[in-house]
Amino acid sequence: MAKVPLSMDESRSEWRGWIERRWFALLVGVAIALLAWGTWEGFRVAPYYVSDDSALFQHAGWYITQGATPYVDFWDLKPPLIYGVTTVLALLAGGDMHLLHLLSVAVAVATVVAGVALVGLLTYRVTDDGFAGFVAGVATFALPSLYTYPFAGIRPKYFAFALGAAALLLAVSDRPAWSGAAAAAAAGFWQLGAPIALLVVAMGYQRGGRRAAGRTVLGGLLVAAAVVLPFVAAGLAIPLFLETVLGSIYGVENYSVAGRLLGVVVELGYGALLVPLGAYGWARAILDDPERYWWVGAGGAVYALQVFLEFQGAIELVLLVVFLAVGAGLLVARARTPPRQAVVAGVVVLIVAGSLVWAVAPVTSARDRMTELQESQTVSSYETLPPEPDGVPSMRTIYWEKRQPEICHYRLGHKQRWYAHKTGEPLDKPKCGQWPFDDPPAEWVVDRMLPG
To answer: What's the pLDDT tens digit per position in 189-222?
Structure first.
């Protein structure tokens, strides 16, 4: 008997059902393929290239194995967990900086793949729709640096991305203590993971009352204690506070609103279209069921405002992208028919493809004009910066030659130099972390927290 050909609607339903049954494996496969391609291309074009930031993190991991003290022998404003990772990797590498770089790249790739998978699982958990979970995971690649830059080394924002998504997934899965722990760990890699920690406490309270909120807080406090107390016990609380807290506050740049918003477009290109798409998904879901989906819009709004606090490149938007990707997934889940779902999925694919073209293609006239417009609206990030000390080698030289610098300020980023200017700290001092103010630490902090 001849097989009756399927109608177009039946074919679409069969195709969607096939993805629905295999969505997680497909998503992980897509993530691995994109990360493998981006890493391979990076190594092909620039073998063993390491970015300045990654060189600092990886070198510091090795430096700690040689007896260096974090925040004293080297200055950095990132929280400590990234140095826990790179120290372990340095021990595994046995002093081979090429192997350390390869291990760091492998961990970065694995962390990004995990983050993408967790965004998909989070969306599936709140929609019970595998196709929506798949689209949400794919939508994270509207940020091309997630898969085109891990070849340059390890970065704490990759861990904040994965742990932030894990914290949200655990919160909607009613695992409050683990949710709080994951959120605190995200903040332990990047300070801007902290809003997720506050968000999951609110989610715990809404889903399970004071008991769940308390367990969320407890989970977070246990992780925070495990990270901070060793520094307190070693007498390093002041260096830790000065660099990771005060350094971050002092490091907020000057900007114009127009210049900052245009900067987002310049960095993301067509990927910026995920913003209205994801926000529309938040709005649709919240209007339909505010009690279930309020947190998506709340978290997204907070991280949309983050662009006015810290924005030095597209990767700064990685936690906003988590919420935008979930918003895209919610839009898919709320489309009433398979054709409409396919349209939303197609738009996401076009956004991802467009963002990649914008990022890697030679400069186009559109990108060139947008960059010129953004530069015309840009103001100086800092009023003045102290000059760099003479004779300080590049971070890549320090990394590859395994140098142990005689000064603690050797990364010499703009935020670091501005911190030195604000505190009056010489950039050529051998050790960092000394209290720079006349008032004792407790008195100084209380004085600035109290009004008047």
So the answer is: 999 999 999 999 999 999 999 999 999 999 999 9
Q: How far is CA 274 from CA 269, 279, 361, in A?
A: 10, 8, 20
Taking the model in full, what pTM does it have?
0.92
Scanning 361-440, the segments in alpha helix (DSSP H) are 365-376, 395-400, 414-423
Give the C-alpha separation, 52 to 413, whole Å: 9
**Token match 């279930």: residue?**
292
Q: How many domains does the chain have?
A: 1
Distance CA 163, CA 378 (A): 33
Beta-bridge partner residues of 70: 74
Cα(132)–Cα(135) distance, integer angstroms: 5
Yes or no: say if 165 and 175 are a contact pair by the CB < 8 Å rule. Answer: no
Task: Burial-class residue 389 by CB neighbours within 10 Å (0-12, 13-18, 19+).
Answer: middle
Segments forming the whole domain that contains residue 209: 37-376
Which residue is it, tokens 């790179």? Answer: 86
For 296, what's the count of Cα atoms within 13 Å in the CB-facing half-sphere? 33
Residue 307 lies in a domain: yes
Tally Cβ neighbours within 10 Å of residue 75. Answer: 28
Tell me which residue of 113, 120, 109 sits closest to 155, measured CA to CA.
109
Does the residue 73 lie in any domain? yes
- Domain membership of residue 277 (yes or no) is yes
Going by C-alpha positions, the residue among 213, 228, 313, 309 that lies closest to residue 267 is 313
Distances (CA, A) of 29 to 26, 68, 114, 125, 155: 5, 40, 11, 20, 23
Residue 31 lies in a domain: no
